Amino acid sequence: MGASILPLRADGLALIRDGQRLLDNMSFVIPQGGITTIVGPNGAGKSLTLRLCHGLILPDEGNVSWAHDARLRHAMVFQQPVMLRRSVRENIVHALNAVAHRSPQERANEALARFNLNALADRPARLLSGGERQKLAIARAWALEPEVLFLDEPTSQLDPAATREIEALILALSQEGLTILMTTHDLGQARRLADRILFFNRGRLIEDRDSASFFDAPETPQARAFLAGELI
Amino acid sequence: MDVTSAFAEAFSLITRLDTGFLAIVGLSLRVTFTAVALAALVGLPLGAWLAMTRFPGRSVLVVAINALMGLPPVVAGLIVFLMLSRSGPLGGWGLLFTPAAMVMAQTLLVLPIVVSLTRATLEELWTEYRDHLTSLGLTGHRAIPTLLWDGRFALATGLLAGFGRASAEVGAVLMVGGNIAHYTRTMTTAIALETSKGDLPLALGLGIVLMTLTLAINAAAYAASRIGARYAG
Predict the structure, then answer these.
(1) Which of A75, A95, A124 minimises the CB distance to B232?
(2) Which of A172, A207, A232, B230 has the maximum number of C-beta atoms within 10 A of its C-beta?
(3) Which residues of B touch A86 (CB under 8 A)?
(4) Would residue A232 count as lying in a domain?
């Protein structure tokens, strides 16, 4: 595995589309460990920031840097997970083959067992329920042995029972040492999961605090308004 | 000969497995299978490449290939004829009025269908899969195997449509094959000839086989899409 790719540094990120600064002067550092949660209203740039960090898009200003070569050592689960038209097992094997994993079949078996997906292993992935799909998407990302996991709104499409299960999984993965950067629009979820909050509004980072102090004593009027449920 | 006894004789040709009759059916199937296989061999990669590449003039090419799906068979026949005729660029190969010439003509007819359908299928899949595949480092040509496999049911339907078009076609194979008995006489050219000659039983028998084939192709296409829907959601 080699040395840790963390900390991740986002330095002065800006993303400009059609003259609009969708993200502006965005800087933060993600050290090893913990769950960092990006919260903020729609259009705040939460998903874009994850995409920039994961390298799916490039910033127009600023840069994302890792401590070491981070290629294939961070993985991302999307808001609407892509399910290939294959079985659950083949979805995992495909991802492992894509990154030239040394033993795709064995590792896929480990992932199926770790996430209780054995009973569904041969089912077509696209016929799974929302919660099962999300679990498969996380299992598929986990199988790649990442050091950092990006989760974009991991439970936005799920019912309460499935949400509870996915949240428990996220906590367990964090306790196993995976560093997690996630977005959510669900403040209750942020409270339950986050160690640290990045509060975004209109493409800017407004507050960067540990979770308890953010929720107990937000510093900025925007954060207070957001927590009070006002439209900002 | 009246129509009733023509039908009776036609069924007798089919049921007693008349060798001359079977030879015509066999040649037709061989030519069309080969043409579809060649079209798949060239068309699947070409369509995939077209789906994943952006270059100036690409839209013109896409429209042109879509238009070629409606290429009149006689024009395809004319093109192959000109290529293979003694003074044509491939005249030296001496392939005019051989089964190989018929394969070429049918390949030309099927190829645009395969290319066009592959491009459309893979573009749609890529839109859906882009984030995930990019995340895994599968971009550009590296995404193609995944997209081809996941588009397998739609692509199978496209190949069957190509098979249907090629096997039902008469103009092109007549022009470049010449409808030579025991050599380049296919089901469609035989039907055309025998009807005009008045040998209705043979024409009817071949017509029945051709219809059955078309039915089988459509059943297979329907099954492919049903299995695809069940498996791929």
Answers:
(1) A124
(2) A207
(3) 149-150
(4) no
Which candidate, A19, A72, A79, A18, places its Cα nearest to that of A46?
A: A79
Question: A95: which chain B residues are within 8 Å (Cβ-Cβ)?
Answer: 136
Instruction: Name the band, by pLDDT with cuts 50, 70 and 90, for residue A2.
Output: low
Asked whether residue A2 is assigned to any structural domain, the reply reads: no
Neighbours of B26 (CB within 10 A): 13
Tokens of B105: 């003509």
Which pLDDT tens digit goes with each residue over B31-42?
Answer: 999 999 999 999
pLDDT in tens, B140-188: 999 999 999 999 999 999 999 999 999 999 999 999 999 999 999 999 9
Question: Which CATH entry fits the domain spanning B3-228: 3.40.30.10, 3.40.50.1820, 1.10.3720.10, 3.30.300.30?
Answer: 1.10.3720.10
Contact A84 B135 (CB under 8 A): no
What is the value of pTM for the model shown?
0.88
Q: Is the dihedral of CA A160, A162, A129, B128 positive or negative?
A: positive
pLDDT surpasses 70 at A193: yes
Q: Does A98 contact B137 at a Cβ distance shorter than 8 Å?
A: yes
Q: Taking residues A8-36, what's their average pLDDT?
A: 93
Q: HSE (CB half, 13 Å, CA atoms) of A88?
A: 24
A6 CA: distance to closest CA in chain B (Å): 19
Residues of chain B positioned with their CB less than 8 A from the CB of A136 = none
Number of inter-chain CB pairs under 8 A, A vs B: 45
Residue A179 sits in a domain of what CATH number?
3.40.50.300
State whether residue A37 is helix, strand or coil: strand
Contacts of B232 in chain A (CB under 8 A): 85, 124, 126
In this structure, is residue A3 part of a structural domain?
no
Q: What is the mean pLDDT of chain B?
A: 93
pLDDT tens figures, B51-109:
999 999 999 999 999 999 999 999 999 999 999 999 999 999 999 999 999 999 999 99
- A21 pLDDT more than 70: yes
Q: Which two tokens stand for residue B112?
A: 């645009």
Gap from A60 CA to chain B (nearest CA, Å): 19
CB of A5 closer than 8 Å to CB of A70 = yes
Alpha-carbon distance of A170 to A178, in angstroms, equals 9
- Domain-wise residue ranges, chain B: 3-228
Tokens coding A169? 């999984």
- ipTM for this prediction: 0.92
Q: With a CB-CB cutoff of 8 Å, which residues 80-139 of chain B face chain A? A: 128-129, 131-138
Range of A13's domain?
Answer: 8-227
% of chain B with per-residue pLDDT over 70: 99
For residue A94, what is the nearest residue in chain B, using CA coordinates? B146
Chain B residues with CB-CB distance to A54 below 8 A: 135
In-domain check, residue A1? no
Domain count, chain A: 1
